[in-house]
Amino acid sequence: MRILLVEDDAEVARFVKKGLQEAGHTVEHATNGRDGLFLAASEQFDMLVLDRMLPGGVDGVRLVETLRSQGNRTPVLFLSALSAVDEKVKGLKAGGDDYLTKPFAFAELLARVEALGRRPSVDAPATKLRVADLELDLLSRTVTRAGKRIDVQPREFRLLEHLMRHAGQVVTRTMLLEKVWDYHFDPQTNVIDVHVSRLRQKLDKGFDKPLIHTVRNAGYMIRAEP
Amino acid sequence: MFASAAIALVAVLWWATAGALDRQTDAAVRADAIALAERWREAGATGLAEAIEERLAVDVENESIYLLMEAEGTRRLAGNLDRWPNAPPDEGSWFRTRVLHDGIAAEARLHRIDLPGLRLIVGRDESEREQLRRLLTEGVFWASGAVVLFALLGAWLLRHALQARMSPVFATTAAIAGGDLSSRVALSGRGDEFDRLAQTLNIMLERIVTLMEGVRGVSDAIAHDLRTPIARARAKLEDAVSEAPEGARPGVPPDEATLRAAIEQGIADLDGISRIFQALLRIAEAEAGARRAAFAPFDLVPVLADAAEIYEVAAEARNQQLATELPERLDLVGDRDLLLQAIANLLDNAIKFTSPGGTVRLMAHTLPAAIEVAVCDDGPGLSPEDRAHAGERFFRADKARATPGSGLGLSLVQAVVHLHAGELRLEDAAPGRAPPGLRVVLRLPKP
Questions:
Q1: Which helix (H) or strand (E) holds B427?
Q2: Chain A interface mutation, best of B278, B310, B336, B352, highest count of A Cβ atoms under 10 Å
Q3: Which of A86, A178, A191 to mutate to test the interface with B (most CBs of B within 10 A)?
Q4: Which of A11, A101, A195, B305 is deepest in the core (most CB within 10 A)?
Q5: Are residues A46 and A89 in the same domain?
């Protein structure tokens, strides 16, 4: 993906740019809101990663509002040191698609960038999701593996659905909490891991090829190959 | 404003009295003239002249003025005017002039009527009315003067009284502008608008003080409470750099694996610090009431059920049971995420302190004016002394030191409960039993 990073802190910018490039993306970097807006408006990007607070008179929220008012729909991820819930809401209302609070783990940022950049198209909603021999039927709400029916609870179904919609991508624990449980909170313990491992047991029981993989220091990924 | 209204009133009064006098005169003259014209139709010029003489004879006040003359010529047929008044206008007109009647010069209001071959003037001597009018005008003048005077005096008195009533407010606001936030507006006890204003101001000041204390709380927490974990992380990193691997000579740099482990530990410590920071911010936000703006009505039952569902697996992993007793519906106005966080903290604590095989309960029920949510465990419980400190930041009971935790969980619960104007109660889950277990009750007022 071609990503525009607008971040005034040189150290954070270097770290994010290096990481994204290592993950195979092209990164343009602007250090203030004015340059960022100019680049975002004049060139084609797949994704914008913006700091909320920027020097140069144009902050992240203004930048997104301006782009959106010009009809630019490029996905936007906010990075911010402002963590209050209403700050988050403000950022998303302005037209941002996701919000990540500093400090963050790079794996979390990468997972969110890739999830945003490859969002499933809303035009043709699929009724079935498939990964290898695992099939999830969104209409009958059933899960089968190699034709064998697997009983899952409603929440496990949603968990699996989210993983399968982002098959091949890392999904972090906080992303799961936000998207599957719809809460913004700190669970203190590894409860999400327990939920995932329980789902994994159900899916992999009797099969020798595991589908849900743990990505160290990041989260989970569902894919056919180990 | 008051003065101009009063003057307008006086003007209306003047018009009503003096004007009424004029209108009365005109009406009398007109009636008289019509009656005389009628008389002429019945009895001709002689009859008319007689009628005029009759009227003059009975007019004791000597007010009436009549003059009947031939249309052409100067012969006077009847009346008390010696000659036709100056500049006699056209037939049917009204006018005012100075005439001489019965030897007296006077202002008169006259009306001229022409009859075939005759011209007639009917009028009234206005000297008395003129005097009355002058009196009235004088009265009006004095009244206006008095009005202006009283208005000025009243305004001054009112202003003075207002100043006296407002001076506590001014004194307080000046003190606050000067930086003394403890100052409050004194109430007069009369319960009037000024007292209400003072009360509102005082409530506002209370609120500002609470918010400022919240802000101060955050900076205190950052300064005081974050130093320990930061110092710990720093010490570990420094240790890793200076400490040579086992068996190596002093001064030789540590091997890569040790360094990598130390760095990873350092990152984990930093993550821990950042989580503590986040928790402190949330507590401070809740304590300051800053999140009340995000309050919305919602049903608490699904939130409790979700919390139970999230933590059920954690309990199962420790071979415990998580039992729930929830009603159909619990309507509440509040912050959904914060309440979930509070319940999550309680469940997390309960699961941590309950031994394997034990049971953790999440219960909720409604009281007439409140909703009670309780989390019970079979753990060691808290001694009464520890309960008093349980809500303090970073407090950890002696028995809990071996269990992982930041000591912020209950502080957050307490802050969230206070944010929702509720109460937090800690008690023995099963009094008399050993261990007694802990029951944490959140009592939240109904909307």
A1: strand B423-428
A2: B310
A3: A191
A4: A195
A5: yes
Minimal Cβ distance to B294: which of A86, A187, A188: A86
Quick one: pLDDT band at residue B253, thresholds 50, 70, 90? low
Residues A32 and A13 in one domain: yes
Contact yes or no for A191 and B337 at CB 8 A: no
Q: Is A169 within a domain? A: yes
Measured in angstroms, the CA of A106 and the nearest CA of chain B are apart by: 12
At residue B307, the pLDDT reads 92
Which B residues, 391 through 420, put their C-beta within 8 Å of a C-beta on chain A?
A: 409
One domain for residues A173 and A84: no
Please count the structural domains in chain A: 2
Q: For chain A, which ranges sit under pLDDT 50?
A: none
Its ipTM equals: 0.78
- Dump pLDDT digits (tens) for B44-71: 888 888 888 888 888 877 788 888 888 7
Among residues B392, B440, B419, B391, which one has the least CA distance to residue B334? Answer: B419
Q: Which of B313, B352, B403 should be substituted to probe chain A, the one whose Cβ sees the most A Cβ atoms within 10 Å? A: B313
Domain match, A95 and A38 both: yes
* CATH (domain of A217): 1.10.10.10
Q: Indicate which CATH number applies to the domain containing A36.
A: 3.40.50.2300
Domain that holds residue A151: 128-222
Residue B319 to residue B376: CA distance in whole angstroms: 17
Q: Is A195 found in the same domain as A161?
A: yes
Q: Are both A8 and A111 inside the same structural domain? A: yes
Instruction: Answer yes or no: is A123 within a domain.
Output: no
Residue B317 touches chain A, beta carbons under 8 Å: yes
Nearest CA-CA partner of B94 in B107, B116, B109: B109
Give the length of chain A: 226
Look at A191 and B311 and tell me if their CB atoms are within 8 Å. yes
Domain identity same for A83 and A148: no
Q: Give, in order, the Cα–Cα distances in Å from B16 to each of B19, B121, B145.
A: 5, 28, 20
> b/e string for A78-106 if b means 16 or more Cβ within 10 A?
bbbeebbbebbebbeebbbbbbbbeebbb
Is B263 touching A (CB cutoff 8 A)? no
- State whether A107 and A11 are in the same domain: yes
| Residues B348-405 pLDDT 10s | 889 988 888 889 999 999 998 899 999 999 888 788 777 777 766 666 666 555 566 6
B337 with A85: Cβ contact below 8 A: yes
* Shortest Cα distance, chain A CAs vs residue B162, angstroms: 43
Contact A39, A47 (CB under 8 A): no
How far apart are alpha carbons B278 and B406 in whole angstroms? 12
A77 found inside a domain: yes
